[in-house]
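2024-03-11 09:14:02 INFO worker-7 job=invfold-0412 stage=load source=structure_tokens
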């Protein structure tokens, strides 16, 4: 069973689900989906892992981003 939590960012609130204990594993989803895409994977992994499944603002999150949030990709060249 996972617990829904939230963290504030410069773009707004990002919700995430957390379950298990132990070494953390961060699951990143693509656009137009959410953290539930990883549920079948999490169910098959062994105990001893802390699963962190965020709902990033890629089109399927529960909480909208701030209206002034910059959601453009940012790239930087190596110096």
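2024-03-11 09:14:09 INFO worker-7 stage=emit residues=79
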């Amino acid at each position: 069973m996972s617990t829904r939590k939230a963290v504030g960012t410069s773009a707004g609130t990002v919700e995430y689900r957390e379950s298990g204990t132990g070494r953390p594993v961060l699951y990143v989803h693509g656009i137009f989906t959410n953290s539930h895409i990883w549920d079948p994977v999490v169910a098959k992994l062994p105990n001893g892992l802390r699963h962190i499944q965020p709902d990033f603002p890629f089109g399927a999150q529960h909480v909208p981003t701030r209206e002034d949030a910059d959601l453009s990709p940012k790239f930087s060249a190596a110096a």
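2024-03-11 09:14:09 INFO worker-7 stage=report msg="The chain has a mean pLDDT of 83."
2024-03-11 09:14:10 INFO worker-7 job finished
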